[in-house]
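A quick word before the example. In earlier lectures we treated sequence and structure as two separate objects. From today on, think of them as two lines of the same record. Here is Small CPxCG-related zinc finger protein written that way.
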Amino acid sequence: MEEQTICPWCDTEIVWDEEIGPEKHCPHCENELSGYRTMQIGIDRDEDEQDDNWDEEQEEQKQDDSYNDESNEGFRQMNVSWLAAEETIRQITDSQEEAPECPSCREYMLEAGKQTVSLQPTVHAVTGKPVIQSPFETVTYICPSCFQTSTVLSEKARNQMLELLAPKE
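And the structure line, produced from the sequence above:
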C-alpha cells in the first residue's frame, strides 16, 4: 500500500514507493521533510506550566548567547572561512566537467585529482573476461562541506569497461 504525505514546505503531495520507502527530502522543493520546525504555543496550558517553559526558554537563550562570546573565536572563524570560500567553490564546480553530489550531504564535490590503479582483475565466468583492464584511472572528489571523499572511474576507464561488457556479435 502506498503512503502519502504533504510536504510542509511547499504543500505538495508526496507518494512514497513501497520498495524505496519514505523520502528524506521533498522531490519538488528538495527541503528536508523531517527538518520542518514547529512552535508550540501554550494557549490551553495553566500558568504554572507556562512559567516553567519560560524558564527553560530563558536558559536555552543563555546557552545560545554563549556561542557569540569571544571565547568561541574558532567557531566564528570557521563560518567566516566557509563564506569566503563559497564563491571559489562555486567557480571550481562550474568549471569541472562533472560535479557529483556528495552521498552524505548532497553538496557538489570538488575534483581533487586522478589516480592510476593497478590490480589483478577478476575474470568472471559469465563473460570470460574482467570487467576492466588494469591499470585504469580513477578521479577522486572531495566535498567542501563535510569533507567526504568519493572515487569514480575516469571517462576513459568507463568507456573501456563498457566495451569489455558489451556482447560481441
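Notice the following. Residues 68-165 form one domain. We will return to this example when we discuss secondary structure assignment.
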